[in-house]
Amino acid sequence: MNALHTTLSNLSSPAVLFFILGILAAAVKSDLRIPDSLSSGITMYILLSIGLRGGIAVSEKGIGNLFIYIIAAVAIGVVVTCVAYFAMTKTGLDSSNAGSIAGHYGACSSVTITASLVFLQQTGAHFEEFVPALYPFMDTAALLTAITLGHIGLKKETVKEGDNEHKISTILKTSLTGRSTLLIMGSFMIGLLSGAETTEALLPFYNNLFSGIFTLFMLDIGILTGSRLHEINQIKPVTFFLALVLPPLHAGIALTVAMMVGLGPGGSTVLAALASGASVITAPAVMKDTFPKANPSLALAIALGIIFPFNILLGIPLYYQWAMLIG
Q: Nearest CA to 147 among 162, 165, 132, 128?
């Protein structure tokens, strides 16, 4: 399957078309909305499905074999956050905004991860199902790195040393107990402890319905994205350019690491999705508390208005083609 065919197939897939429908609904100011309770339930289902299947895969592979991949995820989180931070400082952004945006860039997007899984399923590509469970390790490493870089850039201590330790613990708590992380890791542990045989009766629910429910998920995300597109106007051209360049750059870093640790093209694509996405869940909460002078709408405009549409429409099939070439 060549690159053009892969991209066109992705653009015409039901999930992407539902995403575009959501954007159009927001653009024409339609009253189309996914009720908050239903949206929350759909998100829970998606994350539980990802974690459960990952846990089952690790139970068959062996938990001891996962350590090298955890180290790889942490390393990627640190590196891509550093790249984003120093790139943003070159555009003239102050350290607070650069740190905030870098935190959003480095932290993971559960939506992008899920989209990559659906894409691979549609193309019939095999992938290591434990890779999505690396989410919290890359996410936490990225947030801590962004905070460290931001504070170094500000060249001043805003808190006492003892308070700083408390602040780090607070960040860890926010990262590790947030909804996305808790659902993925909780269901991952359930799958790991229960194994394939015990969870066999659950798999039709978490496997067979996944693609259909994901289309509703993408419709909801499309509406949210469309409602924030007007905020792109506040982004400087050079920052806009970097917002498009950094996701594939981060994906390239992840693909290189994936090749080094022995992941196949499918697993490498998922790892690239982890690295190239931008968080709209854990990062906004942590960055708002850490950098109160940063403009939160700027980071969210980049995440929802540029990075997410790029990855969904073009990025994921591009990363898969790169993974195929490297593999």
A: 165
Where does the chain have alpha helices with state H?
Answer: 3-11, 14-27, 36-61, 67-89, 95-106, 110-123, 135-154, 161-177, 179-198, 203, 210-228, 237-261, 265-276, 282-290, 296-302, 308-310, 316-326
* Mean pLDDT on 145-153: 84
Residue 195 has a pLDDT of: 87
Which two structure tokens, joined as six digits, stand for 161? 């040393």
| CA 41 distance to own-chain centroid | 19
The pLDDT value given to residue 6: 65
Work out the angle at residue 306's Cα, subtended by the Cα atoms of residues 301 and 309, and round it to the nearest 5 degrees: 120
C-alpha–C-alpha distance, residues 213 and 22, integer Å: 15
Please tell me what DSSP assigns to residue 206: I
112: nearest Cα among 289, 315, 324, 322: 315
Report percent pLDDT > 70 for the chain: 88
DSSP for residue 13: S
In the numeric block, which tokens belong to residue 29? 């100011």
Q: How far apart are the C-alpha atoms of 85 and 82, rounded to whole Å?
A: 5
pLDDT per residue as tens digits for the range 79-117? 999 999 999 998 888 888 899 999 999 988 888 998 999
pLDDT at 157 over 60: no
pTM listed for this prediction: 0.80
Q: Determine the 3-state secondary structure of 279 from DSSP.
A: coil
C-alpha dihedral over 220, 225, 227, 233, to 10 degrees? 180
Residue with tokens 């089952």: 56
Distance CA 141, CA 145 (A): 6
Tokens 């790249």 correspond to 83
Helix (H, G, I), strand (E, B) or coil at 126: coil
What is the Cβ-side half-sphere exposure of residue 256, based on CA atoms within 13 angstroms? 10
Question: Do residues 260 and 69 make contact, with C-beta atoms less than 8 angstroms apart?
Answer: no
Helix axes 36-61, 210-228, angle to 10 degrees: 130
